[in-house]
Design brief:
By secondary structure, the protein is α/β, with parallel strands linked by helices. Strands 3, 5, 6, 7, 8, 15 and 16 form a 7-stranded mixed β-sheet that branches. The protein starts with a strand and ends with a strand.
């Protein structure tokens, strides 16, 4: 089969015997025929050597994907041809974290066993997954829309971690890549209107305009000049220095949501007295524990108003165009690249 494979240092396109079709191993396994598979910021960090991933053997990356059931084990509840989306993360079901419903803290599962990071992922025509990580899609959701389900499931977890966020709160989104755009759609869908989006790349701000939310769009230098304060700041940049600067824009009682995934080497200096004096809250958000059902509900409710690829700045590529996809992401001309494998 065709697959974009990472060998620990670089990517390459493999065909047929060089990367064979997966086969059912367990009676409840499912082989998904991939239709849409996203390129995540985490994938870029992996390729750049800034985020841990399997080094045991070359494998396809890609932990955000949707498609249809190609084959299911005899004990599986799924049937060939069903539209599905895959949660790349799972619990070990044995440790205290997992048994408490918090597998994002698990030291053996969670992000430590992610499909597309530690196991064969969706940058391929077919992928083998356990059935408990497969979700059936409602008729109203297309596999194209479901290509965004995994990042929305992470946003859903972040939304819950940051709640309550009363409508009328003064909110700042820092960074207008795809995650920033998904937060834009989420907040607007939930009734928020007093939202500012800060992004240094003006091409990305132009993409946000297409979403027609009426949110205020500015560059970071504007924030620095006006010294406005916010109830909630959602950092989608994954840059430690950005947090260091934007943390100062919180009102008393404010919340700082650190959503963007920073490389482990990043540092940020914060003033402890400021945290004490303003009673500030710092909220970390790690992956998507049991939030896929909620994300699927969001997709169903949002529909084409919010899930239009063009308005979100999403561009599709074939697997063979993987280098074009990475190059376009680096220029900021698009907010997200998704492989269209159909």
């Amino acid at each position: 089969m065709e697959a974009v494979v990472f060998d620990g240092k670089s990517l390459s396109l493999k065909f047929d015997a060089k990367y064979p079709m997966p086969k059912l191993v367990k009676d409840d396994d499912v082989i998904v025929k991939v239709e849409y598979s996203g390129v995540c910021g985490t994938d870029l960090h992996i390729i750049q050597g800034e985020f841990p991933a399997s080094k045991e053997r070359p494998l396809p990356l890609g932990h955000e994907f949707s498609g249809v059931v190609h084959q299911a084990g005899k004990a599986s509840v799924f049937k060939k041809g069903q539209k599905v989306v895959v949660d790349p993360n799972r619990a070990c079901n044995l440790c205290s974290f997992c048994r408490d419903g918090s597998y994002q803290y698990c030291l053996t599962a969670g992000i430590n066993s992610t499909v597309g990071i530690w196991r064969d992922g969706g940058w391929a025509q077919y992928v083998l997954v356990p059935q408990d990580q497969v979700y059936l899609l409602p008729d109203q959701i297309t596999t194209e829309q479901a290509g965004l389900c995994e990042p929305y499931s992470c946003v859903s977890h972040g939304f819950d971690r940051a709640s309550p966020m009363p409508v009328g709160s003064k909110i700042l989104i820092v960074g207008a890549g795809i995650i920033g755009n998904l937060w834009v759609t989420t907040l607007h869908h939930h009734g928020h209107r007093d939202v500012t989006v800060s992004e240094m790349n003006k091409a990305r701000l132009d993409i946000v305009k297409k979403l027609d939310t009426g949110f205020r769009l500015v560059t970071p230098d504007v924030l620095e000049k006006e010294k406005e304060l916010y109830d909630i700041i959602i950092d989608c940049t994954g840059v430690g220095k950005v947090m260091e600067i934007s943390f100062n824009y919180l009102r008393h009682g404010g919340k700082y949501v650190l959503f963007g995934c920073c490389p482990p080497t990043h540092q940020a200096s914060l003033n402890p007295f400021q945290i004490y004096d303003k009673e500030l809250t710092i909220i970390g958000v790690k992956i998507n524990p049991f939030s896929f059902p909620k994300a699927i509900g969001w997709l169903k409710a949002m529909g084409s108003r919010y899930l239009d690829y063009d308005k979100l700045g999403v561009k599709t590529y074939s697997l063979a165009q993987y280098q074009d996809a990475l190059d376009d992401l680096k220029t900021g001309a698009i907010s997200k690249a998704i492989f269209k494998v159909v």
